[in-house]
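U., I forgot to send this yesterday:
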Amino acid sequence: MAFVTRKSRRRREYLATGAELRKLAASVADRLTESNVEMLTELIDVGEPGVGFELLVTWLDESEAILSEEEFRDVAHLAIWMGIPSGLWRGLPVSDSSPGPDAL
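Result:
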């Protein structure tokens, strides 16, 4: 019975992670290509949200996208939740009106 409980908990965590990543992708979609969004969606659908997150951050970094404070906090929250090292996402540019990565 405990196995079913652990499996159910992992499934809920996966679904929540995928939902949060989809929400983040939607908020920055105007700074991604259509193929980036499609690939990210496919990665989430096949159970690879971590790979999707890493690619999302890479695409944002390569395009020199500037994040709002709220978007940066969403990135940070999701990264910490997923156990993604801060070195991958902490350097993303944040708009001048926000405190930036050092405020976390």
